[in-house]
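Worked example

This section walks through a single chain of length 415. The input is the sequence exactly as stored; nothing has been trimmed or padded.
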Amino acid sequence: MSGPLTGVRVIELAHILAGPVCGLMLADMGADVIKVERLPRGDGTRSFVPPDIGGESAAFMMLNRGKRSIALDLRSPDGVEIVRRLLSDADVVVENFRVGTMEKIGLGWDELRAENPRLVYCQITGFGRTGPMADKGGFDLIAQGYSGLMSITGEGPGREPVKVGAPVTDITAGILAAYGVVSALFERERTGEGQLVDTSLFEAGITQTYWQSAIALASGHSPGPLGSAHPLSAPYQALRTSDGWINVGASNQPTWLGLTRALAMPELAEDPRFIDNAGRMEHLDQLVEVLAGRFEQETTDEWLSRLAAERVPAGPIASVGEMLEHPQTVARNMVVETDHPTAGRVRSLGSAVKMSGTGHRSQSDAGSSGGTPSPAPLLGQHTREVLGDAGVSDERIDVLVTQGVLVSSDPRTAL
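Given that input, the structure is written out below as tokens.
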């Protein structure tokens, strides 16, 4: 796909989630992302089955569409030399190994910068390159605990700790890394030099605590879990209806007054306990008790109609399957289809960023997504293609394939 990063060459030395999310973000904007996979099995998500589609991991295909794959043995000097050759004229490298891993094989920031001063080197780790925990590995669950996220997630005080359902620190770290890479590329236009981009799962988790950290920094009190409620405004949470659940976001005075009208309970607007947001937060338990009794009297659809008439933000709690089929999801091209060489027609999530240029227009803006992304690659599918472009002869590639240093699985060219 074309896009604002067309012409930017990214070498993705990353695996599982955070690094591949960064590569996916860059590929969606038109970058040529070459995924370097370690032998013998490639990216770990290739083994995340079930579910699979035609024998291919659904998880891998979700995160790696739009990329090209080469497969090599990074324990081999020849494998390392090939990566060094690719990096000699690349724009970006993305990696998410433990701190020091790349240095051990001769592909650290200092070595690569000396050979390619324009290179943007992006490193995603568990806790960052510096500090007393720099050498620790990174896992989403552990980062959610350290970052405070698990202390504010759950049904309420005294209940079992709960992590955010999605691997939010991994995904957020990947997005932050892509933001850092694009910023570094922008600065390179002024200075002519690349730089190191350093972020972590720990910091990604911290960035999710803006409201709670504001409370803690201002008051000295660490807020705890509130279920679906908001720590700063009320009512702003899920409420049970006669046939399910509904989210209600009456988070300011106009929407609060609109809610009292939708409820046909004008007396709540004059109740001194609920007269303003401070009062509603102070008496949140009593407010929820009143609202719960009223909401349980009618269906979700009936309440959605009532609340819409009063311009009160509200919505159902959709399953993932319902979300994927929702007309708004479809209209925003958030589900895209690709033709995979072995899995056939595969659906995956589309880019959440729409731009007016070709390739990134929303359906509502231009009637199409502007192009179909390429499918996730087979292991080593583009080895011969990528190395040929880098000047490696077919004969040399054949030798390295025979030696087990490379894997080439492109059905058109494989040995």
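What to look for: The longest helix spans residues 168-191.
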